[in-house]
Amino acid sequence: MCRVLDLQQAVLAKNDACAHTLREELAGRGTAVVNLLSSPGSGKTALLERELTRARERGVPVAALTADLATENDAVRLARSGVPVKQVLTDGLCHLEAEMLGGHLDGWLPAGTRLLFVENVGNLVCPASYDLGETLRVVLASVTEGEDKPLKYPTAFGLAHLVLITKTDIAAAVDFDEAAFRANVERVNPGAEVVRTSVRAGEGVGVLLDRALAAREGGPAHIPVMTRQSHHVHDASEDRVGHRDTVGSSRS
Q1: Within a domain: residue 230?
Q2: 250 pLDDT exceeds 80?
Q3: Which terminus of the chain is more exposed, N or C, with fewer CB under 10 A?
Q4: 3-state secondary structure the chain
Q5: How many independent structural domains does the chain possess?
Q6: Torsions phi, psi for 137 (to 5 deg)
Q7: Residue 6 has pLDDT above 70, yes or no
Q8: What is the pLDDT of residue 99?
Q9: In a domain? residue 229
Q10: Are the C-beta atoms of residues 209 and 197 closer than 8 Å to each other?
Q11: 50: containing domain
């Protein structure tokens, strides 16, 4: 068991080092990464398509990379926004890693990109432990998933800078208890912002883009307790893109 844990820690430490390097390299190009995590079916792709479209309409240079085990369906959907999009097929791997992400960006990411949105593999377990060199980590949960989701996946929600509730237009139909959900987020990540969104109703659309741009410019950032408790993670509130790490890894 000790050897297994040692190997896991070594893998995560290597990823942290790669993430640090990637963050600095992208910062040198003026690019900030937004890492989007959620369960399958949360509505992540639909919301991201709207955010990308809004960015294009506002003249903000953005790009998106989406990861799945199979198919290029999400890339096709995101490409409708008119911004550069790349599909990554993980061949069974349940998460992206910093070195993998860097390899896919090499020679592809357009010069001048201000924000790179990374749609991680639909999974709240494995991706939560891997820093991708992001400036902003966002976790999404739909109203259909239950109010106790943050308690079931404390690492994913505990390391988030921003939490988005999706599909709020059907909240009443599924008897979603928003107050309980917010209270559970507060338990694992005190002070984290929780935003209501509905692609169908247009509620909250544009908030993700605004928060990402603010994070890129080094605006005041929420610092998750789990991040502060990790001894090798720097204070996110002092970060300017690429000057200091904003997301480190906290092992649970």
Answers
A1: no
A2: no
A3: N
A4: CHHHHHHHHHHHHHHHHHHHHHHHHHHHCCCEEEEEEECCCCCHHHHHHHHHHHHHHHCCCEEEEEEECCCCHHHHHHHCCCCCEEEEECCCCCCCCHHHHHHHHCCCCCCCCCEEEEECCCCCCHHHHCCCCCCEEEEEEEHHHCCCHHHHCHHHHHCCCEEEEECHHHCCCCCCCHHHHHHHHHHHCCCCEEEECECCCCECCCHHHHHHHHHHCCCCCCCCHHHHHCCCCCCHHHCCCCCCCCCCCCCC
A5: 1
A6: -110, 125
A7: no
A8: 96
A9: no
A10: no
A11: 4-217
Encoded amino acid at 248, one letter = G
CATH number where 196 lies: 3.40.50.300
pLDDT at 4 (0 to 100): 57
- Answer yes or no: is 159 within a domain: yes
Angle at which helices 98-105 and 2-28 cross, to 10°? 30
| Predicted local distance difference test score (pLDDT) of residue 206 | 98
In a domain, 134, yes or no: yes
Amino acid at 225: V
